[in-house]
Amino acid sequence: MSFPVANVWFDSLSSELQALCQPFALPQVASAEGWYLTEQAGALVLRCADLPKQGDILVDFGSGAATYRRKFGGGKGEGIAKAVGLNKKPDLTVIDATAGLGRDAFVLASLGAQVTMVERNPAVAALLTDGLRRAALDPQLCSWLPSRMQLVHQAAVDALAALPAPDVVYLDPMFPEREKSALVKKEMRAFHDVVGADPDADALLAPALALAQKRVVVKRPGYAGFLAGQKPSMSIEGKNNRFDVYVIAGF
């Protein structure tokens, strides 16, 4: 199966960011159309030529929002922490098999987990790589983040067949919007346009259950059914999402 990728507008990339993008085999074009990768203030960003007012999308683990959530987001009392089991065991190994922009992975790592992020889309993987690069230079993050967050650029189903067994496999597959709207957040629009849907999401549950040693956690919109139609051991409800937990063994 092939997946759409963003273009790289090479005239706007420094040599460092060009080198960063090379492993992902991203095409280079002389002029940008639609969604494309470019550089802003030393960071790799995803930008839409058709939506100039929407702003750039980037991975910034040192942003104000990320810092606020890390410090005041509820810690191990958060739903995601309880679902994964960090309220019981702080140093769990986690595979985030559908990493996206790495926000959930960052929360888990900030609470002590060792997180392997898996991302199949090359444009998003490039954004994650750049986010990790800049985090390693951030005085507030460099002492712990590089050792707790790693990236694997691979399809989730392949990664789940190849990676060492973690304590927890975390899945957050793309889910279609219930209503089409011009007001859809830019990040969701970008992911639908650039990354596409996850038609194979149901196929991830079985290999995740086979690999995880303790549990599989699936993040779902509140209105969505269970992944692969399989009822979890328990669910932790949030304001807009829930975490379906498939318990394999106790901690």
Amino- and carboxy-terminal Cα gap = 37 Å
Rg is 18 Å
Largest sheet: 7 strands, mixed
Low-confidence stretches: none
Can you walk me through this structure?
The chain has 251 residues and is an alpha/beta fold. 29% of the residues lie in helices and 22% in strands. The protein contains nine helices and eleven strands. It has a seven-stranded mixed beta sheet, with helices on both faces. The protein has a four-stranded mixed beta sheet with strand order 2-1-3-4. The chain is globular, with a radius of gyration of 18 Å. The relative contact order is 0.14. The model has no long low-confidence stretch (mean pLDDT 87).
How would you describe this structure in keywords?
seven-stranded mixed β-sheet, globular, 9 helices, alpha/beta, four-stranded mixed β-sheet
Set down the secondary structure blueprint.
Blueprint: E1 7-9, H1 15-21, E2 28-29, E3 35-40, E4 43-48, H2 64-72, H3 79-84, E5 93-96, H4 103-110, E6 114-119, H5 122-135, H6 145-148, E7 149-153, H7 156-162, E8 168-171, H8 186-195, H9 205-211, E9 215-221, E10 234-237, E11 241-247
Parallel strand pairs: 1-2, 1-3, 5-6, 5-8, 6-7, 8-9
Antiparallel strand pairs: 3-4, 9-11, 10-11
In short:
By secondary structure, this protein is an alpha/beta fold. Helices cover 29% and strands 22% of the residues. It has helices spanning 15-21, 64-72, 79-84, 103-110, 122-135, 145-148, 156-162, 186-195, 205-211; strands at 7-9, 28-29, 35-40, 43-48, 93-96, 114-119, 149-153, 168-171, 215-221, 234-237, 241-247.
